[in-house]
Structures are given as C-alpha cells and as structure tokens.
C-alpha cells in the first residue's frame, strides 16, 4: 500500500489519517500470467491500480485481429473505462502478461472517496487529465507518423516496455503489421551480427 | 452565460450564487472566421468554451500536412491541453471555421475555481473523464477500422459535423486521404444522380 501512497503523493500530499481512509476502499488481488481481469461482455466492476506486473487492454475486431489500447506496468490504472463509468458490458479484454499484484476499486468506492475527500477528487481529476493529454499525443501520432516514426518514438518514450513485451504486441499497439515491425527491426539485427 | 450554466448542470446542479461566482472567471470573446486562437509556438494562456461557432484544432507534420485532433462546436472545450496544463509552447493550431463566441479561462482561474468550489472540481473531473473515454474509442477506431468504417461511424456519431464541415477536414480528422474520401462518397453521388 505504501507504493500507492507514493503514487498519490506525486499529485497531492496526504496525511497518515487520510491515507488510512483511502486504502480501506481498495481490495488487494494477486493475478497469474494469462489470467483475465476483464473479458468482452463482462460487467466491469473494478478499475485496477497495478502495484507490479504487466497487463494489456485489447479489442478484438470482427476479423479476429487484436488491437491494443493500453499496456499497464506498475503505477498504471486500467479498466474498460467506458464500461466501468457507464456500468455497461465490456468491449475490451484486460489480461495479465506477467504475474502481478493489483488493487481493485469499484465505481461506487471511487465516487464516495472523491466526494468525501477533496484531495482524491483533485487526484483523480489530475490523473485523468494527464492520461487525456497523453492520448491526444497518441492520436496525433497515429494520424501523422509513419510506422518507423511510431516505433522509434515508442522506443524512446517507453524503453522499459520495449524490453519486456514481445514485439507482436508492440505492433498491435502501434497499428502496424508484424511483418512491417520485423522490417523495422532488421537493421538492428544486422548491426548486432556484424 | 446561461448556456454555460446549462452545460455545467448536465453534470452537476449549481445554485444562483455558485453560478454568479463561476462566471466571473470567464472572459467573453467574439471570434471571426479564419481567426486563430492558438498558433504553433504560442504560450497557451486559455482554454476555450464554445458558446457557438465551429473550430478545429490541428497539427501540421514535417511534410506540411494538416491532421485534425478535434472539431469544436457549441459546448465543446478546446485548447492545446498539453501546452495549457504544462504552460509550454503550443504544438497545435486552433482556428475558427465559422464566426463564434467563446468564453476564455486561464489555468490559474480554472485551478482556483476547482479548489474553492468542489462542484467545479467534480465537473472538470467528470468532463475530462468523458473526453478520455471518447478518445479511447477514437484510438480503437484508428487502429481497427478501415476508412469506410471510420467514415460511416463518424457520420452516424456526428451527423451535424458532416453537414457543416468541408469533406477535406473530415478526411484530416479520420486519417484518410481526400481521394479515398471522394471514393467513399461516390456511391452517394451516383444515387443522387439516378
């Protein structure tokens, strides 16, 4: 729980009493590799704060192809947010890629905490605002950058993810084919062989 | 200002006294067609609430091509949010497409209002959360849908925008070429001629 406190305090300081109050809203959960926290069609009960481990949130199109909305490493918050906030059936899958510990938060717990403790209202506003501006950047990248530019930018923004996650999934996140990603990686392979 | 109150009250009711307090933070401005509210490189002083009129926020890539992040019709909030929140130079342009009236809000006014009136903290959290989930949908659309699917979904989601905005800009929003958009429109032209 201390890591959650550090994470919250990146946005706003909280007293010992306040954190005591906050942590009561969360439910701890261990998650195995390949375990699904959300499957398409589920009612989405929780959002999840990742204490450690790796997750991906993905959409499967009509042709059965997977498209990755989000990777979640430690300190990420994940859910199918449209379904979570509107309490509708999920259109996404959320699956564990590396054994993990998460903290689970229901919508009613989240709203109660935000209404009773103004610092948490502030925290959630700031957090989603940061996520919103990061998403704007991703939209501009998808609209304006070619596959090589997208891949190189991803590598410089998220060097840890590049190391930890199979290339197949990076391709599904960047909206490029696996063949294209292999071609983009080819010069690096040649260098390492020479 | 009454329209701003209606807009806020879609998320939370406010009393006459509270709205009296809120409206003092906004500065009214009339905007001419083709007038820029933000240009690349500007310090971004304001976010804008659109009382009426049409705007677009766009990015120009290294090759000089325009990519549209957002259209703004009445009740939209627009800015280069990354630059606004981090008080850095804008990477976007925000331009008026149809004569407009806007209300301007500085970052310090926004933060003061949110900290002094918890209903506005709640309003801004809920608003950006809605915008965040809408953006997630757009990312999935850009990753998974072909140009025809994107165009048809846009038409059913935003029938007003399709009517009011030249096709060139719709193409720049959907990440498809103008030639492709013309081909997608071709069957409609044939039908109207027959």
Automatic annotation (TrEMBL), chains A, B:
<protein>
    <recommendedName>
        <fullName>Cyclic nucleotide-binding domain-containing protein</fullName>
    </recommendedName>
</protein>
<feature type="domain" description="Cyclic nucleotide-binding">
    <location>
        <begin position="29"/>
        <end position="113"/>
    </location>
</feature>
<dbReference type="InterPro" id="IPR000595">
    <property type="entry name" value="cNMP-bd_dom"/>
</dbReference>
<dbReference type="InterPro" id="IPR018490">
    <property type="entry name" value="cNMP-bd_dom_sf"/>
</dbReference>
<dbReference type="InterPro" id="IPR014710">
    <property type="entry name" value="RmlC-like_jellyroll"/>
</dbReference>
<dbReference type="Pfam" id="PF00027">
    <property type="entry name" value="cNMP_binding"/>
</dbReference>
